[in-house]
Design goal:
The protein is built from three helices and 31 strands. It is α+β, with helices and mostly antiparallel strands and about 450 residues long. The strands form eight sheets. Strands 5, 6, 10, 11, 23, 24, 25, 27 and 28 form a nine-stranded antiparallel beta sheet that branches. Strands 12, 18, 19, 20, 21 and 22 form a six-stranded mixed beta sheet that branches. A hairpin with an 8-residue loop joins strand 15 and strand 16.
Length: about 450
């Protein structure tokens, strides 16, 4: 009786071995089949022994318990990164996941869209303007303000996320709201015996209708014999107008600590006040407000007065007339930027990276995307490159994490183990047959 029970347990162990190796064969098959699937994370099978009735220091017969298996997708181990020719092919250099939703979810109300995570993606804009991949997964991002700044977003809520979408309004002209001047005025021009020569600039901006316009900006030296004034009169006017829109007296320092640096800005008449916190004056041009940046006080990167010649080395504004879109790029810190044919770059979204405490606890779905679970832990969203997350790489895709050599080696081992377990079953069957023949 004891022998028959032991033989039966041995056969059951062999059957369990067949089932276990069949499971391992299934995972190996899946890994090999997806060796060319971008972003695929391999599955591994672990074997665990089963012990029946064995006590410490036991003697006598042994009862085979067999084996059981568990499988786990190793999500925290990615593949190699390969370069591509598409600027919106995205991979992650380091830790983190891309936030995505389904195309159907993107077309629904924001609160109803499913939230999923991807490790990589070959995204392109479709006919409706959504940035999605061939599996209809749409990239999510935080929409930028009209001036290109990114509003703060909650790290543990998707309320601030929207499907990344290129709309017609993003092709429209953008009225200028900010002008920045960085220049040097010649210190010799304010000497007591200097010739009163003005320094003129024409500064371009884009009005609310998308037309390019100009402001005439004049820097006139204040000459006050017998002293070196270090002072200038700044006038801002529309072309052809005699009356300035705004007028200011600029004074520069001449001490050891402030020599050549802007130390005061005093408005004349009813000119808009200078804000020392921003270094700008707020101009009203027929209902269009423009922050005209003169630079902060004592800022060496702003407006200066040194011995060199008049040098407007940087004049920039944030508006542009209607332009044709050349392409879209994604920066390392997740900014989705549109590039136009006139050289302007417009920030549309920021794509955050999502991190979870236990990536291997995520639920694996079709098309290399994952869902948050209790095992993965709650998610946090970060600006790429901050916190524990890596950076986003454009023109790149993460390849499959499958190692073909390792999988083929495992395939050989599995085949031999499967055959050996089948041999155990065959041997037990023959032994039971011998036992039956003895009873005749």
């Amino acid at each position: 009786m004891t022998m028959n029970m032991s033989m039966s347990a041995t056969m059951n162990a062999g059957i369990a071995g067949l089932a276990a190796n069949a499971t391992r064969l299934a995972t190996i098959s899946d890994n090999i089949a997806n060796s060319g699937t971008n972003g695929y994370r391999r599955v591994q099978t672990s074997f665990h022994s089963m012990v029946l009735g064995e006590a410490a220091g036991s003697r006598g017969t042994y009862t085979a318990g067999g084996v059981r298996t568990t499988t786990m997708r190793v999500i925290d181990q990615g593949g190699q990164i390969a370069s591509t020719s598409n600027s919106t092919d995205l991979a992650i250099n380091g830790r983190g996941f891309l936030p995505v939703t389904s195309l159907q979810g993107a077309r629904q109300a924001q609160g109803d869209m499913p939230f999923m995570l991807a490790t990589t993606g070959s995204f392109r804009f479709d006919a409706d303007g959504y940035l999605r991949d061939t599996a209809d997964m749409v990239l999510l991002g935080v929409p930028a303000n009209a001036d290109g700044s990114i509003p703060p977003f909650s790290p543990n809520s998707i309320d601030g996320l929207q499907p990344v979408r290129m709309t017609e309004t993003q092709h429209a002209p953008l009225a200028t709201s900010q002008i920045n001047l960085q220049l040097n005025l010649p210190a010799s021009a304010t000497l007591p015996d200097a010739d009163p020569v003005n320094n003129d600039l024409s500064v371009e901006y884009v009005d609310n209708t998308g037309l390019r316009r100009n402001l005439d900006v004049t820097f006139a030296p204040n000459i006050t014999p017998p002293e070196h004034s270090n002072s200038w009169t700044l006038e801002i006017r529309a072309p052809g107008d005699d009356v300035p829109i705004a007028e200011y007296e600029l004074t520069f320092g001449n001490g050891s600590d402030d020599g050549g640096l802007l130390v005061s800005v005093v408005e004349a008449g009813g000119s808009p006040a200078y804000d020392p916190a921003t270094g700008a004056v707020l101009l009203d041009l027929d209902g269009q407000e423009i922050a005209f940046g003169l630079g902060q006080l004592l800022d060496p990167a702003g407006m200066t007065q040194h011995s060199t010649a008049f040098n407007p080395y940087q004049i920039e504004h944030n508006g542009f007339a209607k332009s044709d879109l050349l392409g879209v790029k994604v920066t390392e810190d997740g900014l989705v930027q549109a590039i136009y044919d006139q050289g302007q770059v417009r920030t549309l979204y920021r794509v955050p990276l999502v991190d979870v405490p236990n990536p291997n606890g995520l639920q694996s779905l079709n098309d290399q995307v994952y869902r948050i679970t209790t095992e993965s832990g709650n998610f946090l969203m970060w600006t790429p490159g901050e916190g524990p997350t890596g950076t986003i790489l454009g023109n790149a895709l993460e390849q499959s994490a499958t190692d073909i050599a390792e999988e083929l080696t495992g395939l050989i081992q599995t085949q031999r183990a499967y055959s050996s377990n089948a041999k155990v079953i065959q041997t037990v069957d023959e032994m039971l047959q011998e036992t039956t023949n003895l009873k005749r």
